[in-house]
Write a structure and sequence with these properties.
2 domains; Rossmann fold; globular; 219 residues
Length: 219
């Protein structure tokens, strides 16, 4: 067999194309703060089934967690909420204060997720707050991809800052709100409240109940 028969011709270069092996994808470093060995093993087994190159490190308490984030940078951190000597939000503050980890995506998880905990976690900057029961392979895969791949549009932190600024301006005005006029004004700046917010306008001042749809301004 001649070389030409063995290898196809590249249309782009006119040279013989070679089957160059692609390097394996870089491992995704995930840190799990979990004091329950049973829950840690269950989550680790589920992460093994999401068809992504995830390397899981487990910290069973605050001391091990501090040592882990001091030693190296992680791509995603899962924080159990109920922990001896503190909670997942305290761990998140520790994470943000550690050099190189201020922007690492973090998710608070719990066996019994309460509404006020979810609100506090999202306000603090966590990308999500989930019940452990919801962490099946599909949900975990989506979570890992969302945390480690760039998302189109505004960064979540910028979205939250814009939402908060809009609420503060409306609250400071202390004027009766004309729904149609406010909607027109926000739309002019590329901000439009979700349909449900138009019928309950006071929800704009309650961050946990408000969702904005952000879109590009017309050119």
């Amino acid at each position: 067999m001649t070389w030409t028969e063995a290898q196809p011709i590249s249309r782009r270069t006119g040279l013989h194309a070679l089957d160059v092996p692609q390097p394996p994808p870089a491992p995704i470093e995930l840190l799990l703060l979990e004091d329950s060995a049973f829950d840690a093993q269950a989550l680790s087994r589920t992460l093994d089934r999401i068809d992504l190159p995830v390397t899981v490190s487990v910290a069973d308490g605050f001391a091990a967690f501090r040592a882990a984030i001091t030693r190296k940078r992680f791509d995603l951190v899962l924080l159990d909420y109920l922990l001896p000597g503190g909670d997942g939000l305290a761990a998140y503050e520790m994470l943000r204060a550690t050099p190189g980890h201020a922007d690492v995506p973090a998710v608070v998880i719990s066996n019994e997720m309460r509404h006020e905990v979810a609100i506090a976690a999202m306000k603090s900057g966590c990308i999500d707050c989930l019940s452990k029961d919801a962490l099946d392979p599909g949900a975990l895969r989506d979570l890992v991809l969302r945390a480690t791949r760039p998302q189109p549009g505004f960064p979540p932190g910028l979205l939250n800052a814009i939402r908060q600024a809009v609420r503060e301006e409306i609250s400071a005005a202390q004027l009766p709100v004309d729904l149609s006029q406010m909607h027109v004004a926000l739309s002019a700046f590329g901000l439009a409240p979700a349909p449900e917010a138009q019928t309950e306008w006071e929800a704009l001042l309650q961050e946990e109940e408000t969702h904005f749809d952000f879109h590009d301004l017309p050119h």
